[in-house]
Amino acid sequence: MNFGAEFSNFMRRMIWLLLGGVVAAAAMGVMSGRQEPLPSFSSHVLENKARFVPEKCWFETAKNDDVQCGFMHVAPSSPDQASPFQLPVVVMRYTGKDRQPDPLVYLSGGPGSASWLEQKSIETYWLDWFKQKQGMKRDLVLFDQRGTGLSKPSLQCDEYRELSASILANPGTPEQNASRYRSVSQQCRDSLLTAGMPLQELGTERSAGDVNDLLQLLGYAQGNLLGVSYGTRLALEVQRQFPLQVRSLSLDSIYPPGEHLFRDWPDLLAEGLERIFRACDASPRCQLENGDVRARYAVLRDKLRKEPLQVDVSRLGLAGGVQTLRLNDEILLAILFDAQYASNSLQSLPAMIRHLQEDRLDLAMGHIESYLLHQFDDAFSEPVFWSVECHDNPVISRERMDARVNAHPELRYYLPHDYDVCDVWVADKPVEGLKLTETPRETPALILSGEDDPITPSHWAVKAAEQQFVPETTYLFRFANIAHSVMDNKDCANDLFINFVNQPNKRPRADCRFDDAQKVLAAQTH
Fold first, then answer.
1. Which of the listed CATH numbers 3.40.50.1820, 3.90.1300.10, 1.10.1780.10, 3.30.1330.60 matches domain 41-154+199-259+435-524?
2. Against a cut of 0.85, is the pTM above it?
3. Which of 64, 221, 343, 416 is deepest in the core (most CB within 10 A)?
């Protein structure tokens, strides 16, 4: 499989909307309690040589004294070396009443995803996000992890985008595509090492140290960590190494240590297909409109394998100059999986299968175009993804992987031996994998999980809650009909989050009935 589409979804921008509004009287109350501007952050150096250098923000802010920027030079591996990475840092300061001393630190997904700190995203997204979260009464700390986004150096290989363009226009068999992906991975790694890029300085353990150093450099004694997808794994590693620095953990779509994406990929892919079929089987309306979706898919799959469908995508202006997509059965499977990152997609995927089988391409273009745009997401770094993921999890033996793949004979064609290229990215060193905590974590934890999540399934959340945390201060919320990134899809999860951060030792509450009413209304209008 070409992993560009599957993994690029870890970087989907979260648009978190709170219920309700702020009445004028409340707004006046906040304004009347406004404090003087907080002192600016200053240059600072830690004993391990990590340092923070303030810089002028590269974007416009409504109040410059409320937002401060700079670069963190991460600690070198040895005293005689230079810092291998410089990480951009943006701190949004809460200046209202009852300001709390412990900030919220956002940890992006991936691994390999940026935190969207470029000018447009800050001005159109993060500033508004922070305004909506004023109920936290805390600062918000944003930074790009090593090798991603605006970090220096940023690790990218154009060959991956070029390969995506080539496969979309002229796909081979899954085995041929996997072989091409392996060759590009080897080429990318070799070229980065030749250029002196610090691949050996990547890993969740090192990023956890960055979070701890950043809190100290900014003068915070403790922090509250918000992680989404891979960001939850990083949050847990920060807590494992530096438990006293973490006041609370908010974990959305948890990917905990001990779980292994590549080991479970055959199961996740098979479950993704079955989820579509089950959803339609459970809906009389879907069955009436689409008939036997499982049978329709089988017919369409065989048809596209023999004769790919020519799809004009010139109007999208895709990177690599892709004008025509040759939609074959492998790309169809990738589209069906990709679409499930968004909640409520199960309502439309059976119809997409029917439309394609009936040659009604115009009615199926929505999911196709979304998939193509994800393929060329510049906010994602494949070198960082593979370096970190393969460092966290040991390479799987051929025998063990064969057993997992052979458990799904209907997908064996799409799972060649070469789909996992970790042996390329960690070829020169043995990997032990991330360590698990020896005792359950006592740090208060809010765990949010969607029962339709295709890539971080809800049973991972249940297992982690039961085995890695103490029950007294662990709050697991699972939501039906919700997919990846719960806070992106469930409004009341934002209230749960804010209530938890304010009182982490008390089970948070929120009224989700309005969400349910909206869901019913949406279903009735589709």
1. 3.40.50.1820
2. yes
3. 343
